[in-house]
Specification:
Length: 327
């Protein structure tokens, strides 16, 4: 049955967890055909196209951060053939692909110094899932600070903000212009709490203080904004696009799921080592199946330290032995 016909009425009894664009997108996909198989193929094809766009943007982004062509190819290979990426985005078709595309495209426009485009992409991405909205401040800050005409730039920023507000009103109108439509979001923040899905930082805070999930999530938002502002202060825009979410995952997320990492996974490739990408992939794959976040994180952390420190210790021992022989 085409979802688009009744999607607005049905959402009265099932308040949305995500933004209105995702509900409309799913409704349009199901409206195209009454055949489940056709709808299924269309959805997979659309997600594959979105993933291809993300990879093309990442390839161009790597040109700003990675000098070696071989390294760029290896990184793209890890991203393209990654079983977690294929599982979550092409098989499970999580809507986090829209978050990933929004963040990657936002950073791509940022590198091109097209700050207005970056703000718009991040703003629109938030109507699929609210995550990218926090990052709008990054291109906004650079746009105002680098502008030679501050008054005009502030007027443009106000115009973009007004445009996004109007878009929000139009998109939410069919579902009802009321905070009741966000009941699903608040319910999810209050109810989702599982110690198996906590990173070590969040697990320690939960064991020591036992905060309510909603309080923990609000503290996480404050932490993310603080990390973002610190990155802006030190003029580290790539970190600003990624580290706030990493901090929130580690210290405050009460219901971590492996596909959340995909929000920043593609941009992490621009500054973490190839080995870290592989370890992150193993971590996401394990969590997808078993869910014990802290156990796997601690194991991979020490494995990463060993892989990084091991060769250096061996080299130090070899140098010390060589010097001893010379004496």
């Amino acid at each position: 049955e085409p979802l688009l016909i009744n999607v607005f009425d049905r959402w009265e009894s099932v308040p949305m967890i995500y933004g209105p664009l995702f509900a409309i997108f799913i409704g349009m996909i199901t409206f195209v055909s009454s055949s489940l198989i056709v709808t299924f193929i269309l959805l997979k094809f659309f997600y594959a196209a979105l993933l291809a766009i993300i990879l093309l943007l990442v390839w161009d982004i790597l040109g700003y951060h990675v000098k070696s062509l071989i390294q760029k190819r290896n990184i793209i290979a890890v991203l393209t053939l990654n079983p977690v990426v294929l599982q979550h985005l092409l098989i499970d078709v999580h809507n986090d692909i829209f978050v990933a595309l929004s963040i990657v495209a936002g950073y791509w426009f940022f590198l091109k110094k097209k700050y207005i485009h970056s703000m718009l992409v991040l703003g629109i991405g938030g109507f699929f899932k609210y995550i990218p909205w926090m990052l709008v401040v990054i291109p906004l800050w650079y746009y105002v600070m680098e502008s030679t005409n501050k008054k005009r730039s502030l007027r443009n920023v106000f115009g973009i903000f007004l445009l996004l507000v109007v878009c929000g009103i139009i998109l939410y109108a069919p579902f009802g212009l009321s905070f009741d439509v966000l009941t699903g979001v608040f319910r999810q923040l209050q109810d989702n709490n599982n110690r198996l899905t906590l990173f070590p930082g969040a697990l320690i805070i939960d064991l020591l203080f036992s905060p309510a999930p909603l309080i923990m999530q609000m503290a996480g938002l404050a932490l993310g904004i603080l990390v973002l502002l610190v990155c802006l202060f030190f003029r580290k825009p790539l970190f600003a696009f990624t580290l706030p979410y990493a901090a929130m995952f580690f210290f405050t997320t009460m219901w971590f799921q492996s596909w959340y990492v995909l929000w920043i996974f593609f941009l992490l490739a621009a500054y973490v080592s190839f080995e870290v990408l592989l370890l992150t992939s193993v971590f996401m794959l394990y969590v997808s199946d078993f869910g014990e976040v802290s156990v796997m994180f601690i194991f991979l952390f020490f494995l990463g330290v060993y892989l990084w420190l091991g060769p250096r210790l061996v080299r130090m021992i070899e140098v010390a032995l060589a010097r001893g022989k010379k004496r």
